[in-house]
Write a structure and sequence with these properties.
Elements (H helix, E strand, L loop, with lengths): L19 E5 L28 H13 L4 E5 L9 H8 L7 E6 L4 H11 L3 E5 L5 H8 L4 H14 L4 E7 L8 H8 L4 E7 L13 H9 L4 E3 L7 E6 L5 E5 L12 E4 L4 E3 L9 E2 H7 L3 H12 L20 H4 L2
Parallel strand pairs: 1-2, 1-10, 2-3, 3-4, 4-5, 5-6, 6-9
Antiparallel strand pairs: 7-8, 8-9, 10-11, 11-12
Helix pairs in contact: 2-3, 3-5, 6-7
Bound molecules: S-adenosylmethionine and iron/sulfur cluster.
The site of S-adenosylmethionine has 19 residues, from β3, β5 and α10.
Length: 330
């Protein structure tokens, strides 16, 4: 029998139990993806404002005591932070954490995959928006497709599967590639996830409707819905092949009612919804003011009390999300 967590569970005002926390370890990134980072870049936070590794490990410990069993490290690009593998080494033994995962742009995955797995990371998501070098460059502004593909090949060679691939669909740029993506990875134990872009400050772009993505895929493959919800993802089997397909529909409200996650920004603010919220609690300030973990628990509960029932953005992008994804931690 699994022992119950030593602190009470985190439950929001609408009765949703929080078990999954995304922790941004940096707002810095070596890519400049058009949907995530403003063209001029962002003013990165001074290092002194960011959570230290000691603070991240302390916070993870208290969250796990409150029943959080999954932490995703994200950013910015988590792997650009110095000694990132050491952070993974320190987090993986935290009692109660079953899943320690990360989202990466894959730029150095070929080199870092083995050390990460040895350090105790359980799973990976790799972002890859196009299979064509020129488009990949257009979307990431600076990234090199070859490096990301080498990273994915390394995961396959290591047998570090299943993994997930994140593909943000951008109308007029890569929305004709959905079928190619599925074909390319069809025989790998992975999930290719097509993500609706979230309109962070971007004008003039429109959502790529799922029916269009699906139609592209079904020109080549047959999809069959898989039972069981996986957060905001609807999942499909690719009939006769190993890969799965996921649809991540952040804009439609369908999944808000089952939302079990919150975010911690790189400066330690508790962000309870991707959409803008004015009242973020600074867990960093609490940790720097006291060594008392009961105070940290109280601050987490105070922040969770502000988690909204759903975000206020519609599928046309009305009610835009505030800020930039690179700052929040996707
Ligand atoms: N740098 C890492 C990466 O790119 O995988 C981790 C951070 S990134 C912010 C996390 C995920 O958010 C990526 O898969 C990225 O494609 C996604 N993302 C960024 N901006 C987005 C947006 N405006 N809409 C939807 N997804 C977005
Ligand atoms: Fe960087 Fe990831 Fe944002 Fe691209 S999506 S700019 S890789 S943080």
């Amino acid at each position: 029998m699994v022992p119950s967590p030593p602190r009470g569970p985190i439950v929001d005002p609408f009765g949703r139990r929080i078990r999954y926390v995304r922790v941004s370890v940096t707002d810095r990134c070596n890519f400049r993806c058009v949907y995530c980072m403003p063209a001029a870049g962002i003013d990165v936070r001074p290092r002194a404002e960011m959570l230290t590794y000691d603070e991240i490990v302390r916070l993870a410990g208290v969250l796990a005591e409150m029943g959080v069993d999954k932490i995703r490290l994200t950013g910015g690009e988590p792997t650009v932070r110095r000694d990132f593998v050491k952070l993974v080494e320190r987090l993986s033994p935290v009692p109660g954490l079953r899943t320690l995962t990360m989202t990466t742009n894959g730029w150095n995955l070929a080199e870092i995959a083995r050390p990460l797995r040895d350090a105790g990371m359980t799973r990976l998501n790799v972002s890859i928006d196009s299979l064509r070098p020129d488009r990949f460059r257009t979307l990431s502004r600076v990234g090199e497709l070859g490096a990301v593909l080498r990273g994915i090949d390394t995961l396959v060679d290591m047998g570090w599967t299943p993994f997930k691939l994140n593909v943000v669909m951008v109308q007029g740029v890569n929305d004709d590639e959905a079928g190619e993506f599925v074909s390319r990875f069809a025989d790998v134990d992975c999930e290719v996830r097509f993500i609706e872009w979230i309109p962070f400050g971007v004008e003039g772009w429109r959502l790529v409707p799922w029916r269009d993505v699906r139609a592209r895929i079904e020109e080549r493959h047959r999809l069959e819905p898989l039972d069981g919800a996986d957060g905001p993802a609807a999942r499909f089997a690719v009939v006769g092949r190993r890969a799965r397909v996921g649809r991540i529909a952040a804009l439609s409200h369908q999944f808000c009612s089952a939302c079990d996650r919150v975010r911690v920004t790189s400066d330690g603010s508790l962000k309870t919804c991707l959409a803008y919220e004015p009242r973020m609690v600074s867990l960093r300030d609490v940790m720097r003011a006291t060594h008392d973990d009961d105070a940290l628990e109280a601050a987490i509960r105070a922040g969770i009390a502000h988690k909204p029932l759903s975000h206020a953005c519609d599928e046309e992008g009305e009610g835009r999300f505030e800020g930039a994804m690179v700052r929040i931690g996707g």
